[in-house]
Design goal:
The chain is α/β, with parallel strands linked by helices. The chain folds into two domains: 2-160 and 275-387, Aminopeptidase, CATH 3.40.630; 162-272, Alpha-Beta Plaits, CATH 3.30.70. A hairpin with an 8-residue loop joins strand 1 and strand 2. It has helices spanning 2-27, 35-47, 92-108, 129-135, 187-201, 240-260, 280-292, 311-317, 338-343, 347-369, 371-387; strands at residues 51-54, 63-68, 73-78, 115-120, 144-151, 162-171, 210-217, 228-237, 264-273, 320-326. Helix 1 runs antiparallel to helix 3 (92-108).
Length: 390
């Protein structure tokens, strides 16, 4: 049984895989600066006989590692960026290890059907690295793409917002705040108007739309009428259409805030992410493998909390999934917290990572060895694309 062989290979590599995840946790490199983390994974894959290309898509910390020839080509995505300040509070120290570990396992177990690719994907937290990879054509010959993200549940399904993020700047005129305030034009008033109007708009927004932001520059000194202010605002919705219509309203508000306060303004789009298209047959296959290993599969619901991921664009480009593994031992710890960072570097967390590596390898094995499953996956993708965002 190849399945038993796959599980055996991973058990033999267990210590090495955990050590790699611990190192990446220590490195804690943020978006586009993951030099040591990406090198660690690329070196590991190269040593195991993969053909490795570094710096793909003009990104220093991206890589493509491949083994095998021909079709189907299954891509496992490797993330490894940390968050500023709180390190690996999203558990990305495990993602690249799971994908590289699963890929090496298939090679070691002697699976010689199709091509297994590990795509080193920088900057998930900020910068949408996978979008750059998609636009550079890295997924052009990929048949199926998948990854498993640490979380507080096991599932092959995900719900993720589409998002657009903006920088907004107001330009006024400086003046002494006490002796000649009337000579100034207050760029902070425009900014405060913007945030107040966003607050008022919330009541009229459709369900499940999010709009949130921070002021990155609130003025220069309290005794000067602020001549310049800046903020970053993110708008999210579960589909592109709702997202775009909300963005139009947000832009009108931003303009009115400038007009009402006699300021000039500028909006720059910083980031854009797509919602995740869940490939049902692939998600079901992965969940079947969770159950095979005796792990409980949870239903993914909106109420559990929803974020965004640059895996969204990948799942809209090729059939794919953004799956989850519970590294919290059933405790409800949300990502991007110090507690989640602890779970991402705990023995229990690493045990879960090893099990998820097995699940990923088994799912990959199912896809490359079953023509019927592959066709089902592709047919689902075509249907979903035809219907558009739900
Ligand atoms: Zn995150
Ligand atoms: Zn994450």
């Amino acid at each position: 049984m190849k399945e038993n062989e796959i599980i055996k290979v991973i058990d033999e590599m267990k210590t090495d895989l955990i050590n790699m995840a611990k190192k990446i946790f220590e490195y804690s490199e943020i978006a586009f600066q993951e030099k040591k983390s990406s090198k660690l994974l690329a070196d590991f894959l190269e040593k195991e006989g993969f053909n490795v290309k570094r710096g793909i898509a003009n990104l220093d910390t991206a890589f493509l590692a491949e083994f095998g020839v021909g079709k189907p080509k299954v891509a496992l995505l490797a993330e490894y960026d940390a968050l500023p300040g709180i390190g690996h509070a999203c558990g990305h120290n495990m993602i690249g290890v799971m994908s590289a570990g699963a890929a090496v396992t298939l090679k070691k177990a002697g699976i010689d059907a199709g091509t297994i690719a590990v795509i080193g994907s920088p900057a998930e937290e900020k910068g949408a690295g996978k979008k750059i990879l998609v636009e550079a054509g890295v997924f052009n010959d990929v048949d199926v793409a998948m990854m498993i993200h640490p979380a507080n549940m096991n599932t092959g399904h995900d719900i993720a917002y589409a998002l657009r993020a903006f920088k907004i700047e107001y330009f006024g005129k400086a003046s002494h705040a006490a002796s000649s305030p009337d000579k100034g034009i207050n760029a902070l008033d425009a900014m405060i108007s913007l945030f107040s109007m966003i607050g008022l708009m919330r009541q009229q927004l459709p369900e499940k739309v999010r709009i949130h932001g921070i002021i990155t520059n609130g003025g220069q000194a309290s005794n000067i009428i602020p001549e310049y202010t800046a903020a970053e605002i993110t708008v999210r919705a579960l589909d592109r259409k709702t997202l775009n219509s909300t963005v139009e309203r947000f832009k009108k508000i931003a303009e009115s805030a400038a007009n009402a306060n006699l300021c000039k303004y500028k909006i720059t789009e910083l980031d854009s992410m797509d919602e995740v298209f869940v490939n049902e047959p692939l998600a079901r296959t992965l969940e079947k493998n969770y159950e095979l290993l005796g792990l409980k599969v949870s239903e993914r619901t909106y109420e559990q909390g929803v974020g965004s991921t640059d895996m969204g664009i990948v799942t809209q480009t090729v059939p794919g999934i953004h799956a989850y593994v519970d590294i919290t031992d059933g405790v409800d710890i949300p990502v991007h917290t110090k507690e989640f960072a602890q779970a991402a570097n705990s023995e229990k967390g690493y045990e879960a990572m090893i099990k998820a590596t097995k699940v990923l390898a088994l799912t990959c094995y199912d896809v490359i060895t079953s023509q019927e499953l592959l066709e089902e996956i592709k047919a689902h993708f075509e249907r979903r694309k035809g219907v558009g965002p739900s």
